[in-house]
Amino acid sequence: MNNQDRTGFVKLYRSITQKDWYCDINTSRLYICLLLYAQWEDKTVNSVHVSRGSVLTSIRTLSEKTSLSPQQLRTAMEKLKRAGEITVSTTRRYSVITLTKWDEYQNCTGGAQPKKSKASGNRRTKGGYSYDLEEYENKIRSTVPVYHKKQKM
Q1: Same-domain status, 49 and 94
Q2: Does the global pTM surpass 0.85?
Q3: CB 73 within 8 A of CB 64
């Protein structure tokens, strides 16, 4: 996994605490892991099409990422399946786990997320927000109090 795959964020709503499975730490850990590793756009991984909100993985890989035993993972996956949070498509080599409410929770309206604008001139981009560097510096200067040293007599 390269650094580009580790950037960005996912939304985690407080309403997750109202889920029946939330108090089970293993299930919560697995769900958050799946949220973090899910594809945010349709992609082909190892010649397998993986849709937005899905993770191409295996029990072994999930076990390493979550520090849960294979049996704990299977139990947690079963709880999430019964709750309608995930669907699982399994082959001998891998599983594709899909978060069923990905689009609803991550506000994806189809297609890829918007790309960040390129910085040009005095415009800068930070965290997806574009700002004018000079305007930003002036704002900082106007809000930070200036203390002058008293001259000694």
Answers
A1: yes
A2: no
A3: no
